Amino acid sequence: MDSDAFQAAFDVPRGTLDKLQLYEQLLIEWHGRMNLVGPATLTDVWGRHFADSAQLSLHVESGKHWLDIGAGGGFPGLVLAAMGWGKFTLVDSVQKKCRFLQAVVDTLELSSTVTILCARVEALPTLGVQVATARAAAPLATLFDWSLRHVRPGGLYLFPKGRNWANEVENAAESFAFDLETRDSMTDPDARLLLVTDLKRRSM
Predict the structure, then answer these.
(1) DSSP assignment of 9-20, as one string?
(2) Predicted TM-score (pTM) above 0.90
(3) 3-class state of residue 48 by DSSP
(4) How far is CA 119 from the centre of its chain?
(5) Do 36 and 30 touch, CB atoms closer than 8 A?
(6) How far does CA 70 lie from the centroid of its chain?
(7) Which of 43, 107, 194, 201 has the maximal Cβ count within 10 Å?
(8) Cα-Cα-Cα-Cα dihedral of 73, 47, 156, 182, to 10°?
(9) Whole-number Å distance between alpha carbons of 51 and 56
(10) Domain limits at 91?
């Protein structure tokens, strides 16, 4: 996928494409210093990373406050922020990745809607967000454990998961009760987007 195909898929304005093109340049530049994404995926940043992140916008209305756990290279949070999809708190515990995230925020002029927290998410005070997300950060049960206290009652947990998604759901159900809807991924036929509501920890 290239920028034209991305624009056709998500109907974003020219200004958003300009921001994402800057993002692509920064990702490639910084990747030489640290492992932000799989090296093989740098030849398809628009598909493997930008579209894979942007597809979450099709399932959540704009304007909400998101928590992105283990933000790493900024996916999905910074792509959604570049699309103007709400307010974002990105959390990562690795200092050098936080420096990259901040560089993207500064270059794309997203500081009014994006906050970078360099910390372990389980050590943070309650954030009170409306949506929690993460991409390739941890198994689903762990993501539930980390995010539950940060999401307001009635909030949404939206996690893209790969081909092992059904096993992760089964394992998470041992410790948590929840309502689940799944959506097909636009970028991987074996992957699913997991939309979780009414998440509660099971009493032991």
Answers:
(1) HH---HHHHHHH
(2) yes
(3) helix
(4) 17
(5) yes
(6) 9
(7) 194
(8) -140
(9) 9
(10) 3-201
Cβ atoms of 76 and 52 closer than 8 Å? yes
Q: What is the mean pLDDT of residues 46-68?
A: 96
Residue 146 in contact with residue 175, Cβ under 8 Å? no
For the chain, the helix, strand and coil percentages under 3-state DSSP, each to the nearest 5: 45, 25, 30
Number of domains in the chain: 1
Q: Which residue has the higher pLDDT, 177 or 32?
A: 177
The answer to whether the CB of 64 falls within 8 A of the CB of 131 is yes
What token pair was written down for 112? 């009014």
Q: Is the distance from CB of 188 to CB of 161 less than 8 angstroms?
A: no
Q: Which two tokens stand for residue 50?
A: 């930008």
Q: What is the mean pLDDT of the chain?
A: 94
Q: Is the pLDDT of residue 103 over 80?
A: yes
Segment holding 92, helix H or strand E:
strand 86-92
Helices vs. strands in the chain: H and E counts, helices first = 8, 7
How many residues comprise the chain?
Answer: 204
CATH code of 145's domain: 3.40.50.150
